[in-house]
Amino acid sequence: MKVLLAPQISEKATQIADKNEQIVFRVVTDATKPEIKAAVEMMFKVNVDSVQVARVKGKVKRMGRYVGRRNNWKKAYVCLAAGQEINFAAGEQG
Q: Residue 42 in 3-state DSSP?
């Protein structure tokens, strides 16, 4: 359960969801593909077809004359089985 941190909501993630029927999640950096698959299946009660992962390097940022760096992170592209979908807006009211 602690493998998934949050769904990645962006324009690119929305295009991927529409085109390839994949959901993008932000995951812990040491998570493996089987752990991610098991967490998504258990949490959302769906069948996962495949998982692809990517490491994202943190951006270099400046604060005045000091140079810092954001943390590296990992994201997972989860491909759901045919006919499956995850609705994140189901719990929201408004």
A: helix
> 63 is written with which tokens?
């604060």
Residues paired with 77 in a beta bridge: 24, 52
Query: Is residue 22 situated within a structural domain?
Result: yes
Please tell me the total count of domains within the chain.
Answer: 1
The mean pLDDT value of the chain amounts to: 89
Give pLDDT tens digits for 21-35. Answer: 899 999 999 999 999
84-88: which pairs have CB atoms within 8 A and are 24 or more residues apart?
84/46, 84/47, 85/21, 85/46, 86/23, 86/44, 86/46, 88/7
Please check whether residue 91 lies inside any domain of the structure. no
48-56 and 22-27 as β-strands: parallel, antiparallel, unpaired? unpaired
Q: Is pTM, for the whole model, over 0.90? A: no
* Contact present, 59 and 69 (Cβ < 8 Å): yes
C-alpha separations of 72 from 35, 47, 52, 62, 79 in Å: 20, 29, 17, 16, 23
